[in-house]
Every structure is written in C-alpha cells, then in structure tokens.
Amino acid sequence: MPHPASTSRHLLATALLFVAPILIAGCNGATEPTTASPSAPPATTTDDKQPAASVSVEIKSWKDVQALIAAQKGKVVVVDLWSTSCVPCMREFPNLVALHNKYPAEKITCISVSCDYEGLEEEPPESKKPAVIKFLESTKATCTNLLLSDADVDVYESIKLASIPAVYVYDTQGKMAKRFDNDAGDYGDEGFTYEDHIIPLIEKLMAGDTPSPESDPK
Fold it and tell me: Is residue 37 in a domain?
C-alpha cells in the first residue's frame, strides 16, 4: 500500500500541472500563455512637453560663483549655500527647488552651492560629488548646482559667514538685496525659512520694489 505522504505528493504534483498555466496567465495578464506577443513600439505623444531636465553638479570656485551671479542681470538671483553634513540646510533645501520650479527662468535664477569640500588633500572636491549628486537627485534639483572647489572654512572667512545655511538674494541689477543667515540669532532657534523670509523679498524684487542693497562680501 502506498504511503499516505507519497500519495499526497503525487496528487499535489498532478494538480500543479493544471494550475501552473492559470497562475502564469494571471501574472502576465495574457489569455494564451504559451505564445509571447511581440513588444509594442514605444507610445508616441502629441503634446509639446519638453524632456524632463536632468540633475547635475559642476565643481567651481567661489570666484566662479560670483561671475555667474554677475551674468544674470535682469533676473532675481537666489544663491543657497548648503552641505550634506548640515541638517538644517537639507531640511530647507526642497524649498529652493520649489522656488526654481514655480517661477519662469527669465525671471529668476536659483543656484545651489555645496560647501562639502573641507580642504583635505585626501578628500578632494571630486570625492564629495557622489554624495552631493545623490542628495540633489533625491530632491529633483534641476536648478544650477555647484560644488565649491574652495575649502568651506576659507569661503566662510572670506564672506564673513559663521555658519550655513545661508541664502544670498540679488536684485535684477546684480546688487545683493539681502543675505539670510542666523549668525546673530535673528531668526531664533529654527532659523530663517523660504516661506516666511526669502519668498516675500523675492516677490517684492520681481515686482520692482527694490530695497536698499546690503554690502556684498566677496
């Protein structure tokens, strides 16, 4: 007499022969699983949408950043200094991306400037690029993204900045309208925000209401 377990395995195997094609058809959504249909050509679109902009980053000096700002005459320019080691920077960064996406390119230029390079010979600016681009891609930052080739502390000293995040806003004439930082604790423990502090100024500048420019530290 066959062992009960042997009989059960035989019945199970027989059942699977009938069930397997059904399961395959259900997963693939096909009514005839034995014949693979040829791949359909890519769908075409009739709209006028442009291909999505890609995320990239270039390694530039602080002097290069200043030259880029000067070349944006006629536009409001927003320069965001940040780092992947700065949690407040990364928390507020998506608002720069939203700003870039909200206004037309002929009205405003948004520039992100990574201060990740610390000046160590064994960790050149190129070594910081993978982490920087990974974060930029996670936020879909298709604005102009730069990674400083100057050591962070050297830049901070040259512009008299104690810490980041910091945001420079320039008017349409290329003059710095305001630098947002929290060196003096003016914005409390939470610091400045795009929504409450930066965007109101930008909208004034875009409307032609130009405040007295601040001194522009180089």
Answer: no
What does the pLDDT read at residue 172? Answer: 95
Domain at 102, CATH number: 3.40.30.10
In a domain, 197, yes or no: yes
Kind and range of the H or E element at 6? helix 4-28
Residue whose token pair is 């959504």: 29
What burial letters (b/e) apply to 26-37, b meaning 16+ CB within 10 Å? eeeeeeeeeeee
In the chain, the N- to C-terminal Cα span, in Å, equals 95
Token readout for 32 is 């005839």
- Domain membership of residue 157 (yes or no) is yes
**Residue 3: its pLDDT value, please?**
41
Instruction: Give the pLDDT confidence score for residue 190 in this predicted structure.
Output: 86
Q: Which domain holds residue 66?
A: 58-206
